[in-house]
Amino acid sequence: EDCTCRYCYHLYKDPVLLQCSHPICSKCAQVQFSFELLNEPSKFLPLKTKHKQEKTPHDEKQTIDISCPICSAKTTLLVTQGITKLQKDTQMIENIVKLPKPPVKM
């Protein structure tokens, strides 16, 4: 199996699974999540009233979609949780560990 992230094109680092079951580096998923969050900040900012921030009833359910770099399927993440609920790809981690080590330069 290919052990190269299709987002950064490096060996997977701390791979997680998207909802489509394809892997991505956790940092790559975080980059996508942060980009989407910064792309439309007004969509996610709490409402301000009378010098204080108030939560709206839907705050806990605001979502961001990130795209799979392999199949383009969307993975929906809660804004309040970010990528923390993405499952680690233990199979890919095992595959990476089994890769031959590069020769040591002397």
Topology order in helix (H) and strand (E) letters: EEHHEEEEH
Rg over CA atoms: 18 Å
Question: Which structural class do you get from the secondary structure elements?
Answer: alpha+beta
Oligomeric state? single chain
Strand order of the largest sheet: 1-2
Please give the number of β-strands: 6
Strand percent estimate: 15-25%
Overview of the structural elements:
The protein is α+β, with helices and mostly antiparallel strands and 106 residues long. The chain is built from three helices and six strands, in the order ββααββββα. The strands form three sheets. Strands 1-2 form a two-stranded antiparallel ribbon. The longest helix has 14 residues, at 26-39. It starts with 14 loop residues before the first strand and ends in an 8-residue tail after the last helix.
Task: Kindly list the characteristics that best describe this protein.
single chain; 106 residues; alpha+beta; two-stranded antiparallel ribbon; 3 helices; elongated
Task: Set out the fold topology.
Layout: E1 15-17, E2 23-25, H1 26-39, H2 41-44, E3 47-49, E4 52-54, E5 63-67, E6 74-78, H3 90-98
Antiparallel strand pairs: 1-2, 3-4, 5-6
Structure in a nutshell:
The protein is an alpha+beta fold and 106 residues long. It has helices spanning 26-39, 41-44, 90-98, and strands at residues 15-17, 23-25, 47-49, 52-54, 63-67, 74-78.
